[in-house]
Specification:
single chain; 279 residues; mainly alpha; 10 helices; 0% strand
Amino acid sequence: MNPFIQLGHDMMQLWSSYSSQYLHGIWNTIYLAVICTAIGCVIGLMCGILNTIPFSPHDHAVKRFFLKLIRLVIRIYVEVFRGTPMILQAVVIFYGLPYFTNFAMRFDNALTCAFLVVSINTGAYMAESVRGGIMSIDPGQTEGAKAIGMTHWQTMTSVILPQALRNILPQIGNNLIINLKDTSVLSVISVSEFFAVHKTVTGATMLYFPSAAIEMLGYLTMTVIASLLLRWVEKKMEGADNYELTQDDALTLSAGTYRLNKNPEDLAERNLEGGNSHV
C-alpha cells in the first residue's frame, strides 16, 4: 500500500477512536496559553512600570534604595526565568517545592502548577518587552506630561502605556504562539494538554508517527488561527489610513489643506467679496 494512503488510514483510525481525547488536549492547550499569556502580560506591565520609575541623586535615600532593590529583584527574576527551560521550571516548582518545604507546599492539581509556571515564564519575557516599549516612546512626551502636573502613574497609564502597548503587540502575539507550543513540556508534570494525549495514544496503539502527524496538524492550525487573529487586532489598532481633513470643514482653510486657485480673475473676485463683507 502507498505509504501516504497508509498514513492517512492510520490517522483516520486514531481520530475516530481518540478524537475526544485529542480535542480535550487542544482545549487545555488553548486555555493554558491564552490565560497564562494574559497573566504574563499583567506581570510584565507591572515589572515594566516599576523598572522605569525615575529617580535622581537628589531624591531621598530611602526612595533610591527601594527603587534600586526593586530593579535588582526584577532583574534576577527576568534572568532566572529567561535563562532556564520551562520544563525544568515546571519540575522544580512541582517536585522541588514540596521537597524543600517537607511537603508543606505542594500542588494537588498539576494544572494549577502549570498556570503558575507558564504565567511567570511569560511575565519574565514580557517585562523586557514592556521596558523596551516604554523606552521607545519619545522622552518629550513624559516631560510634557510632568509639565502639566501629571504623576508618574498617570503619565504611564494615560500617555506612555497606550502607545507602548501598540508597539509591543507583535511581541504579545509571539508569546501567545510560543505558549501554544511550549505547553507541550508540561506533560512532564502530568498535565493533560495536547502533547500528553499524544503520549497516551501512542502508548496504547504504538502508532507513533500517525499520532505525531495529527499533533503537527493540530499545533499548526492553532498557531495559524492565532496569527490571523493577531494581525486583525494589529490592523484595527492602526486606525484609519487617511487622516486628510474634509474640504467642507470650516477649519480646513486655517489648516492649510485647501487648494489655492491661481486664476487672477477669481482672486480679484474673491478679494472684492472679502472687501464687501467688512462694509
